[in-house]
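Let's practice the habit of predicting before peeking. Look at the sequence and jot down your guess about where helices and strands might fall. Then scroll down.
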Amino acid sequence: MAAWMLPQRIAEWCEVLSTGLDRRNRKYFVPIILGMLLASGRRTVSSWLRAAGVVEDWQDHYYFLQTLGRSAGRVATKLLFLVVRRIPVSHVGRSVKLALDDSPTKRYGPQVQLAGTHHNPTPGPSGSQFLYGHVWVTISWLVTHPLWGCIGLPLRALMSVRRKDLDPLTNIGRAPWSFRTKLELAAELVEWCVTLFQNWFHRPVLIVADGAYAKRPFLRRVLATGAHVVSRLRKDAALCDLPPTKRRGRGRPRKYGTAKLSLSRRGSHRQGWTQARMVLYGVEQTVTFKTFLATDRPAGGTIRVVIVKRSPELFADSPAGWVAFFCTDPKVSAENILESVADRSAIEQNFHDVKEVHGVGQQQVRNVWCNVACWNLCLWLHTLVELWSWRRSGPTLKQRSDRPWDEPSRRPSHADRVKTLRKQVLHESFSALPRQQRTKRKIQRLFKALTRLVV
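Done guessing? Here is the structure:
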């Protein structure tokens, strides 16, 4: 069997990430990444090891996943430094955007540690509202590629466990785990990386999150780091007007206004709407919106509110009515807020890619730390593939000559990038073999066709 080898750049990056582990365990990191890249079919851990050619010390690789899960924070920190150095400053934008969201993975079988019943965001044809498995709170860095638009680079994830699943009577012998809400986990992820981005790029940091994270415990901890939050606003939000500019009497000045603002009335009012051309979701379109300043107690002060009229191009799921967003920094323009909301779809694409392309959730490991390692490994591999293909041209990544029905202008998907990297691995592995005589062109063409079928 040929000894597969990673491209030099990917191998160097894996060596950098493995420095966050103990010296005795660093040798197992590269074979795991190589097996994840070359594995096919159901992406179990055994399929990773078979693809990497691991035969003798396969048990040590299984035990390595537990060690990697416990050290996921240190490895993610190495990846964070690597990503910050590799992305050009010109691709960052006016502000550093970080996306937060959570996603579940289905599990099967008995004795899966800390697994529970969670809400199913994608019921599918069966229509099941709940699923059995784990939930992962994930943070991604949103960067703008000059040709392909906004791309999400997942950095780290933390497991969210319900309090009832941590019952000591039903978790005897399991790994110790402290209960934290999704808001606390999300705030921990922001505190972990926001300082580095502020010191490196010297630009404001915007945390783009779903409306479920627009609550006091999360907002207060994020604002304490110096970052600001862009999120969705409830239609029945308790907003107040701005406080008076002049102080009356002694004491500290007012932080909130005295008059309440009705968001539903402002959204249904016919006047005050503005139209502007924006590039949202990669399409230039006309957006109708209105914006104003208000004070919000969960945010702890003044916020900017943007009310947008729904349209089939902007919100395909509900073409009528309006939706409201807010930013804790009142100086941010309405255009920047709407662009940030549209860029948040990149983390949803990350979840799709790691599940459909890398097969996260199919490993079927039982130990809690092995589950943590498998989810984060798929996130890190996704980011490494994106970094490897960042400076490559579109034709070298698409390779759609055998698909004339496909749209040529469509940007290369993450699956296209993974296939190109696989071909690079096979090409370099076979090129490193000693060649005693020149291979005929017909055999070369047949070999290339066989490589395409294998990939």
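How did you do? Residues 306 and 334 are 6 Å apart (CA to CA).
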